[in-house]
Design goal:
The termini are far apart. The chain folds into 4 domains: 3-82; 92-179, PAS domain (Beta-Lactamase); 183-251, Helix Hairpins (Orthogonal Bundle); 259-410, Histidine kinase-like ATPase, C-terminal domain (Heat Shock Protein 90, 2-Layer Sandwich). The mean pLDDT is 87. The strands form 3 sheets. Strands 2-1-5-4-3 form a 5-stranded antiparallel beta sheet, sandwiched between helices. It is elongated, with a radius of gyration of 43 Å. It contains 13 helices and 13 strands. With 419 residues, the chain is of the alpha+beta class. Bound molecules: adenosine-5'-diphosphate. Adenosine-5'-diphosphate is lined by residues 311-312, 315, 339, 341-342, 344, 352, 357-360, 364, 369-375, 398.
């Protein structure tokens, strides 16, 4: 406020006070009351008129409070970030933060142990280069990153890790690696146990079965039904042991021998097997127009494909039809077995390939099943990078299909007569 304005204001205030005193005296001789009333009125007037400086004081106070609040929040945020970072650095899983070019931005202690990264040298280095000559580096080079399971830890060759890559922030990624050695060891122990037990049971069972075969029911007609049952059960036990041994072998195998599996003779054998099992109770149809052979293990593929045929016969009442198909598909080729049998409720479908999983135990046992057939089929297909598809409707029938990719398909070899 300028000096002249201040003078004018003071003179006006003084005049006001004098007028107040004069009016007080005229009204009843209370000069002081008049002066006081005018003084209060002037103060109120001043405060409302001079609200600009007051507001600016108030504004300054609000900005300071805001600033303080902002600083508090920033500190709190920084402290949370520090805590988060400290926790991440202590995580038992390896965590590596990667920039859009897959260069290492940050990693924790577990990443030093499991992946062999070193601080500070490896910060800024391309991760794939740092993990040279490992399955993990090959995986990083791929465009698609489905989680990689049970691969050797580059920083600790006696350990196994499972790795996944997740998007993070703007075009960044975070790599997570978990030590799965103990799970792998437990899996191995379970596999060894099943394989050893099956192996140990095989010899005594063969002996028992042998002696049972030697016994002639005609020597003891009263025992004939018992003997028949004992033979059937010992055969079943023998089959379970054989299936368990097959599963153990398939589980430990990572690749199959690549040989040509001619499909025309294989389909003819499958038809004969179906007819032998059905003994005329079903109509067996084969539709084979793929004109392709398979590449893989002849023995394992035969076992898997015939398992599906045997199931179709066993779970289809007399009078039904079993159709075996071998066709080309947009993705490659498919082998399928359809039946008009009992069918399977949808709730069971996802669990059918588990060991010993049965929709109906009595029906499975009654038809001589071990409960391991579809488990074997799944393992054989996995080894051939193929997929099992199941469609079923209770009371109408089922279709089990094996989908093979082009890498497993071969044009049939030309016979000598044709050349
Ligand atoms: P199993 O030796 O008991 O047949 P599998 O593993 O071959 O064992 O099959 C698992 C279960 O799936 C069977 O017990 C049966 O309940 C069901 N299943 C398999 N194939 C068929 C089919 N074609 N029709 C109906 N049910 C089936």
């Amino acid at each position: 406020m300028s000096m002249s304005r201040r003078w004018k204001l003071s003179a006006a205030c003084l005049a006001g006070l004098l007028t107040g005193g004069l009016l007080g005296q005229l009204a009843g001789g209370h000069v002081a009351t008049g002066v006081a009333t005018v003084a209060v009125a002037e103060i109120v007037l001043l405060l409302t008129r001079e609200r600009h400086p007051m507001r600016s004081i108030m504004t300054t106070t609000t900005a300071a409070a805001k600033h303080k609040r902002l600083m508090t929040r920033t500190h709190r945020l920084a402290s949370s970030l520090r805590d988060l970072r400290r926790t991440a650095s202590q995580l038992p899983d390896a965590v590596v933060l990667l920039d859009p070019d897959q260069r290492v931005r940050w990693f924790n202690h577990a990443a030093e142990n499991l992946l062999g990264l070193r601080s500070p040298d490896d910060r800024g280095a391309p991760l794939e280069q740092r993990l040279q000559a490992s399955e993990l580096a090959d995986w990083l080079r791929q465009d698609e990153h489905e989680p990689l399971h049970d691969t050797v830890a580059p920083g600790r060759p006696d350990s196994q890790i499972s790795v996944s890559l997740l998007p993070f922030g703007r075009r960044q990624q975070v790599l997570l690696a978990r030590d799965t050695s103990h799970v792998t060891r437990l899996e191995q122990m379970r596999r060894d146990f099943v394989a050893n037990v099956s192996h140990e049971l095989r010899t005594p069972l063969t002996v028992i079965h042998g002696y049972l075969e030697l016994l002639d029911p005609e020597d003891a007609p009263a025992l004939a039904p018992v003997l028949g049952e004992m033979r059937a059960q010992s055969r079943r036990m023998g089959q379970i042991v054989e299936d368990l041994l097959t599963l153990s072998r398939l589980e430990t195998q990572h690749h199959v021998e690549d040989e040509r599996v001619p499909m025309a003779p294989l389909l003819a054998t499958l038809r004969k097997e179906a007819e032998a099992l059905s003994q005329g109770r079903h109509t067996i149809v084969v539709e084979a127009d793929a004109g392709l052979d398979l590449l893989g293990s002849s023995k394992d593929l035969h076992s898997a494909l015939s398992n599906l045929v045997s199931n179709a016969v066993r779970y289809t009442p007399a009078g039904g039809t079993i159709t075996i198909r071998w066709r080309r598909t947009p993705e490659g080729a498919s082998y399928s077995v359809s039946d008009t049998g009992y069918g399977i409720p949808a709730s069971h479908l996802s669990r059918l390939t588990e060991r010993f999983y049965r929709v109906s135990s009595s029906r499975s046992r009654g038809t001589g099943g071990t409960g391991l057939g579809l488990s074997i089929v799944k393992h054989v297909l996995n080894l051939h990078q193929a997929r099992l598809g199941i469609e079923s409707e209770p009371g109408r029938g089922s279709t089990f299909s094996c989908h093979f990719g082009p890498e497993r398909l071969l044009a049939p070899a030309r016979s000598h007569d044709e050349t």
